[in-house]
């Protein structure tokens, strides 16, 4: 299992823990992630809010690099995943857009490089059975709310990730690790991430209601697969406390951090010390896998 | 709810140009309002996707740019995901954003156009996002320097904010893309 790996900008900044845990988990499971040499930003929300050709060209430039490597592209950031999938769709669906993107990059790109999220690789290429055999520790019934957010599942006709309204990929991983996946209604709600700097008040309310709902469902932690979701839910808990006059203290962990722990990897190698809300409940739950 | 329609530009309104830019036809919308029911910012924006579509149907012109939804939209795509006619309203909003910038009519609460400019300017220079520089640029430009100030020490301490600029990207290629698409990061208005 060898893939072209696109870490994304946040992997060196706000989501260093996502990058660390994804890399450690991949190593432990024999997934070879070969970083795309010279990769650049996917353009994120700022590009698609600004110019459609720019928004398609920035991801396409990276996919062209991956094409030369002759491998599928694996991403860990849900936003990069979405932008790359949309770029593939844009150039495949319209010869005019394909020409404009080729003019911008200087070389033609046909939209043919498969883009996959690491979760898809874990479930489809590694598979639950092999994964189960590799686990040495159990979450021992820890109650986990699986949170998917927007960009993995939407637009669903383009991303094709799991189910648009009730995805279960993260839940399946949680159950495999011996955790208890809670049934809750906010799996694909928006955390407000896009307004994190510009309208923080909106983010605090949207993310606050997501954590409230996870708590009401009995969750001990929330598992995420998107660095924007992680930042909104984790970093904004202090603001929620100020606004709602109550304690939150909800650990917001990447699914790869949970997997890493159950694969026997040390918390420091998984970036767990970087979380704002300490993952004490998660660490205390761990026991030897039977 | 009453929808007031101002004087349309040259009698046509924004609908044709928005449809052309986004590649989305709005004709199939029959106002079921599933998009609005699922929109996370319809409340604070005091406007909703189905309302914007109806305004466009009725010939709305530049007065549409005063809608806070245009810049509060989170691009979460719930509207598109739940539309029974598969109308990509998120793409319509992106077209309205581009148009409002081009016409100099953007008037958002919270300065999303400034944020986008700062983000793209840094990508243009470094080939990758440089959060520290982007955030500083936005905060200086928007006068919100002290917001979240208490979070910075913890973020730096936990390594969640890189101090040095990113390196390793093919910067020449990224600059070429910005030049050829007519968007020069901070140099656009």
Low-confidence stretches of chain A: none
Q: If you compute it from the alpha carbons, what radius of gyration of chain A comes out, rounded to the nearest whole angstrom?
A: 19 Å
What amount of the residues of chain B lies in strands?
under 5%
What is the CATH topology descriptor of the largest domain in chain A?
Rossmann fold
Please sum up the structure shown.
The complex is a heterodimer of chains A (290) and B (189). By secondary structure, chain A is an alpha/beta fold.
How would you describe this structure to a colleague?
The complex is a heterodimer of chains A (290) and B (189). Chain A is α/β, with parallel strands linked by helices and 290 residues long. Chain A has 2 domains: 2-117, Glutathione S-transferase Yfyf (Class Pi), Chain A, domain 2, CATH 1.20.1050.140; 135-288, Rossmann fold. Chain A has helices at residues 16-28, 44-48, 52-69, 78-93, 95-105, 118-126, 128-134, 156-159, 169-176, 200-216, 227-235, 237-244, 255-262, 280-285, and strands spanning 2-6, 32-35, 73-75, 115-117, 137-138, 143-146, 180-181, 221-224, 252-254, 287-288. In chain A, the strands form 3 sheets. In chain A, strands 2-1-3-4 form a 4-stranded parallel beta sheet, sandwiched between helices. A 4-stranded parallel beta sheet of chain A has the order 7-6-8-9, with helices on both faces. In chain A, helix 1 (16-28) links the parallel strand 1 (2-6) and strand 2 (32-35). In chain A, 64% of the residues are buried. The mean pLDDT of chain A is 97. In chain B, helix 1 (15-22) packs across helix 7 (89-102), helix 8 (112-126) runs antiparallel to helix 9 and helix 8 crosses helix 11. Chain B has 11 helices and no strands. The two termini of chain B are 35 Å apart. Chain B has 2 domains: 9-102, Orthogonal Bundle (Fumarate Reductase Iron-sulfur Protein, Chain B, domain 2); 112-187, no CATH class. The longest helix of chain B is centred in the middle third of the chain and has 15 residues, at 112-126. Chain B is 49% helix and 0% strand. Chain B is mainly α and 189 residues long. Classes of the chains: A alpha/beta (290), B mainly alpha (189). Chains A and B meet through helix 2, helix 3, helix 5 and helix 10 of A and helix 6, helix 7, helix 8, helix 9 and helix 11 of B.
């Amino acid at each position: 299992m060898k893939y072209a790996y696109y870490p994304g900008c946040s992997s060196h900044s706000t989501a260093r823990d996502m990058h660390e845990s994804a890399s450690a988990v991949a190593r432990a499971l024999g997934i070879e992630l070969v970083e795309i040499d010279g990769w650049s930003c996917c353009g994120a929300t700022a590009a698609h809010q600004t110019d459609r050709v720019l928004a398609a060209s920035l991801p396409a430039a990276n996919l062209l690099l991956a094409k030369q490597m002759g491998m599928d592209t694996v991403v860990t950031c849900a936003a990069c995943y979405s932008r790359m999938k949309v770029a593939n769709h844009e150039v495949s669906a319209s010869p005019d857009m394909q020409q404009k993107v080729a003019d911008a990059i200087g070389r033609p790109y046909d939209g043919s490089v498969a883009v996959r999220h690491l979760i898809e690789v874990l479930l489809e290429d590694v598979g639950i059975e092999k994964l189960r055999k590799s686990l040495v520790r159990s979450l021992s019934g820890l109650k986990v709310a699986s949170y998917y957010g927007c960009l993995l599942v939407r637009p669903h006709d383009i991303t094709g990730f799991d189910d648009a309204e009730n995805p279960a990929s993260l839940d399946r991983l949680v159950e495999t690790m011996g955790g208890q996946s809670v049934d809750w209604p906010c799996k694909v709600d928006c955390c407000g991430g896009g307004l994190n700097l510009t309208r923080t008040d909106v983010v605090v309310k949207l993310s606050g209601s997501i954590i409230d709902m996870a708590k009401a469902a009995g969750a001990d932690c929330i598992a995420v697969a998107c660095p924007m979701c992680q930042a909104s839910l984790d970093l904004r808990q202090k603001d929620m406390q100020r606004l709602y006059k109550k304690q939150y203290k909800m650990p917001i962990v990447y699914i790869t951090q949970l997997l890493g722990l159950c694969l026997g990897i040390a918390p420091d190698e998984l970036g767990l010390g970087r979380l704002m809300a300490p993952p004490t409940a998660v660490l205390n739950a761990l026991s030897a896998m039977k | 709810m009453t929808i007031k329609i101002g004087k349309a530009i040259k009698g046509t309104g924004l609908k044709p140009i928005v449809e052309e830019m986004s590649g989305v036809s709005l004709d199939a919308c029959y106002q079921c309002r599933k998009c609005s029911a699922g929109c996370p910012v319809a409340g604070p924006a005091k406007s909703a996707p189905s309302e914007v579509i109806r305004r466009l149907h009725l010939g709305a012109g530049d007065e549409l740019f005063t809608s806070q939804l245009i810049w509060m939209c989170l691009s979460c795509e719930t509207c598109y995901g739940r539309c029974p006619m598969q109308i990509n309203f998120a793409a319509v909003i992106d077209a309205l954003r581009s148009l409002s910038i081009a016409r100099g009519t953007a008037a958002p609460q919270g300065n999303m156009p400034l944020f986008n400019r700062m983000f793209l300017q840094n990508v243009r220079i470094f080939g990758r996002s440089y959060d520290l520089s982007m955030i500083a640029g936005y905060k200086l430009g928007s006068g919100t320097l002290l917001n979240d100030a208490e979070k910075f020490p913890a973020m730096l301490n936990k390594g969640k904010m890189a101090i040095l600029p990113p390196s390793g990207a093919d910067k020449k290629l990224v600059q070429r893309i910005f030049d050829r698409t007519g968007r020069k990061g901070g140099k656009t208005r």
